[in-house]
């Protein structure tokens, strides 16, 4: 019997509500990542740090925590469960926000930033994994994309908060900038206990068929739940028969895809722009206050084009969006590099081109990365795969953030933006020749397409085959 429309709407509303709640981890991720930009130069002046000390103890410490959280995030996500891990993340954000705001020296500050970074890293494993496992295939892109939407919304709110507090308060404004994150962290921690546990986790890690059945019926009352469970268990049986380690040839293609999507995400220069936007804009001969205000504009562009990317990801597909983004990356980076080389600074050209760069990122890599990594790995190793992809992403981000104070002190913007442009030309080749399309395909079907069979045989997944 077909489910009445009102019941389907109620069910979808429930899935969206759970996805939004989990995706709030992304808001804290984005806020925590961007809020440091407002405290960047005041902290360096306050504690008299040289560029290397400042890059290590202040600017990149959260990112090294993120690397640690991403590398180890699969362990709590699998052992404790997706929901319990998401609760742990909220506690880490709360402690980090309060501790960073009250820190009396750079060493305590770096410790609390490290804890917040660990929360970011684990969230980039647990949140996309959870949402991908409860989302219907037809809407998986947009629902997992809620995590990225919340990241950029958090970034925007951090920039707006920094600007407002910087205008209202004195030299201690940076403490309020960092401490205010405790409010959304507490709210998120209270809300996350209301979401159910992942049905795939219940089946694969607890063998709790009754619990999984209950959740699946709430997710899709009209579906054949017994058939869904049988498909999930069949996919798991196939993995167990293969007896393959994570870095074996069986998962070679998903690992390569996750590595490249994460690598190119950071080698676009996005975290360089987010972390050092005021410094870059001042180098473009804008005043300090104008530069700080312009970062809020960057955050707004990020939000608007992330929303557009979410609207298109399940319609146009992942590859099409990355084609669009690659073109935008190349145009903006090449022109920004040219402006710095020619000394054509002081006007609106560089801020507008940075807006184009952010728009290109938001509609493509920003909307795609966490969705794509969560899709390409089988259920059995999804948390491990998400952890791997997140680790690549955050190692690259941490390295870039660590060296950028030195780079900006040594080079002009010209060679820096030219380097990122070359990386985006390589990304375009990746999209053309290797990246498969994953929209609208169930997780178990993607496993059949992307994972090598035990005897070395796998289904072809060339881009041309995916388009057909």
SSE layout and pairing:
Layout: H1 5-47, H2 51-59, H3 61-72, H4 74-79, H5 82-102, H6 106-134, H7 140-168, H8 173-179, H9 182-191, H10 199-206, H11 209-219, H12 225-242, H13 252-266, H14 270-283, H15 288-313, H16 318-342, H17 349-376, H18 382-410, H19 413-433, H20 443-450, H21 463-467
Helix pairs in contact: 1-2, 1-5, 1-6, 1-7, 1-8, 1-9, 1-14, 2-18, 3-6, 3-18, 5-6, 5-8, 5-9, 6-7, 6-17, 6-18, 7-8, 7-15, 7-17, 10-11, 13-17, 13-18, 14-15, 14-18, 15-17, 16-17, 16-19, 17-18
* Cα end-to-end separation: 33 Å
Helical residue percent?
A: over 70%
User: Beta-strand percentage?
Assistant: under 5%
* CA-atom Rg in angstroms: 22 Å
Counted by DSSP, the helix tally is: 21
